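Table S2 (text version). Query chain:
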Amino acid sequence: MNIENKINKIEKKVEKEVSIAMDILSDYKKQNKRLFTIIMVLCAMLTSLGIYVIWLLNDINVVETETYEVSQDSEDGGNNNFIDGNNNEVAN
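Corresponding structure-token output:
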């Protein structure tokens, strides 16, 4: 009986150690899933930020300008004047 009691105590001790190890492993598994999700979200945010910055850099200094070409024939040799619609400046 003494030997059987010792064997039972040792088996219970081993079972406790195994269950503690399994608890630790399951906790690590949950933590790894959370970290993986966080890393994927951060990668997606970084990628979208990079795309946005590239879009902004491509959009800098893009100004649409209108060009006017005016030709008038003057019969009496006078000056031809054009009044610009933006600043009301007279150009000869």
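Notes on Table S2: The helical segments are 2-59. The chain has a mean pLDDT of 78.
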